[in-house]
User: What shape does this take?
Amino acid sequence: MKVFKTKFVVTGAMIGIALSFCFSALARAQEDDKVVLKINGQEIRASEVAFAGEELLPYLRRLQAKDRYPYIIKSLIERNLMAQAAVAAKVDKSDTYKKIMRYYQVKALRDVYLNRHIIPLVSKQLVRETYEKEKKSVKPRQRAKASHIVVKTKKEADEIFAKVSGGEDFAQLAKTRSIDETAAQGGDLGSFFAEDMVKEFSDVVFKLKPGQIGGPVNTKWGWHVIKLVEMRAVGPLKFEDVEGNIKAILIRQKIQQEVVKMRKVSKIQYLDPDLIKLNEIAQERKKQKEKKSP
Assistant: This one.
């Protein structure tokens, strides 16, 4: 049972995470691409290790640093041995193989194009300028740290309010009387902004001073007695903490701008009946949106 509202946190890191993985590998691939091992005479280069490292990143994060490189090499050996067996079995002559290769060839061409022609447009200076511009529009926000005790009735809440106001230990009362899942932690809710909580709860918390007791206040979870532990003004994050996120967002914006230009000079034909219908719906929505725009 929580007074936290359900929410999703979306960051630039989420938007750009796949891009950053790919582009860092591409950058390394342009450096000294030495041969690191041979498998039945087939050369495996540093660039392949870099690409495999990016692809295997979710698994590598679970390993200690010293175990990551051997894991990548082991994966490359297994992959190449299977690929060599596939060639021996003439799998590379099959239609399935050709279809898969066509898909990945397009993807590889796109990735290299972005790395050479789009990514360089997002300089550190542009990232810094974007940060400074956004920083000016970010107003300090109040973040509270509080604890609460939740009971079923107002009578119980009034009783508890009187006890903590009289000096009884809040955390101990929370452990013995609260019906909320935070009871084991003495009612500790951690830190939160006003919008993280339901309105009736926040309205009480953000009028308190540190150390003060508030309530009782009723929500759908029960009656709350609240203790404000700390109130702190939170400003914009440091540049170093958000530089990667901002860069990822700017890269995504540059890609979208480029795609818009390309679509204007390209002929795209929808042949599948479902695609034709979906495209018509999309175009109609676009027209309606343009009519509403001032």
